[in-house]
Design a protein that fits this description.
alpha/beta, Rossmann fold, three-stranded antiparallel beta sheet, 12 helices, about 40% helix, globular
């Protein structure tokens, strides 16, 4: 595949694919140096003819990056910020491997503090949804509305189907991005066409100085290392106990958050009817919305999602 002019060169095709008309927003890459020296990266989107600060901030799921929201933001039509979570996209990896909501929330809060000037409609999908809840609980001054997409506490946001785990558990570096595209298509991933797979691979990979391509996000490298190590007896508590502890902290975050909350499910996503019922029981004042999508609602139903979010942000 040939590299585009820049990371925003795909926007006309994305708008055309989603039948979104009108001028494209201006996108820019932002970088914030955190107190420990790590970098936090984000994309800021400004509609044509305005210099307004973001009103909606987006947090992606595990193994994704800020560009997963591009088409949703095109449909949204409002100033927006999309943050690369630590260990993903152009943000630094964490040396402690702590890719859980409460560990990621302070970094996200620092980015919102630096790059916005008002409380946000904070939207998070999967791992980003749990992180958004942790931000809303710890920094209520930053969040006007909380939107959690296809995740509830207790679900493992990095597990996914076995197909996804196997996809990332392969080699961590490749001769070219074309090999990564071939692998994505072989696993039935990438959006169904080579053009869409090339776009996804470009955003989620980088070419090293030695010319080889590798995944940007840390999870792929951790998954490959775990697969290479083979089965082993864990020294710590069983995974279901860990999930229970993290799940309870997630419920505490949702209970502590003061912002109005909406859960948006994909009808083919990870959140089951039982999960949604438990969410409604614990969050009786929250809204629950179902869209015709899988787990990655922002990629399967970006126009419907963008319109829904514009309604939430409309009285800003």
């Amino acid at each position: 595949m040939s590299d585009p002019i820049d990371e925003f060169s795909f926007l006309p095709d994305q708008a055309a694919d989603a039948s979104i008309d009108g001028p494209l927003p201006r996108g820019e890459r932002l970088t914030l140096t955190l107190p420990d020296g790590r970098a936090l990266s984000a994309l800021r989107w400004t509609p044509e003819g305005t210099a307004a600060s973001p009103v909606v901030t987006f947090l992606h799921g595990a193994g994704l990056n800020a560009h997963t929201w591009d088409t949703t933001i095109l449909a949204l039509g409002l100033p927006a910020l999309a943050i690369d979570l630590p260990g993903h996209g152009d943000s630094s990896w964490r040396d402690d491997f702590a890719y859980v909501a409460r560990a990621l929330a302070p970094d996200v809060a620092a980015g919102i503090d630096a790059w916005t000037d008002r409380p946000q409609v904070l939207v998070g999908q999967s791992l980003g949804g749990l992180t958004a809840a942790a931000v809303a609980a710890s920094r209520p001054d930053l969040v006007r509305e909380l939107v959690v997409i296809d995740i509830t506490p207790g679900l493992d946001p990095s597990a996914g189907p076995s197909q996804i785990r196997e996809f990332f558990a392969g080699p961590t570096d490749w001769a070219s991005r074309d090999e990564l595209v071939d692998r994505a298509l072989a696993f039935g991933l990438g959006g169904g066409t080579r053009r869409k797979a090339e776009r996804g691979v470009y955003f989620n990979s980088r070419v090293r100085p030695d010319g080889r391509a590798e995944w940007k996000h840390h999870f792929a490298h951790l998954a490959a290392a775990a697969a290479a190590a083979g089965p082993a007896v864990a020294d710590g508590p069983p995974q279901d106990a860990v999930s229970a502890v993290l799940g309870e902290s997630g419920w505490q975050d949702l209970a502590t958050a003061t912002a109005p909350t909406t859960l948006i499910r994909g009808e083919r996503g990870y959140v089951t009817d039982a999960d949604a019922e438990e969410f409604a029981r614990r969050q009786p004042e929250a809204a629950v919305v179902v869209l015709p999508a899988g787990h990655n609602v922002q990629e399967d139903a970006p126009t419907a999602l963008g319109e829904r979010l514009r309604e939430l942000a409309g009285n800003d």
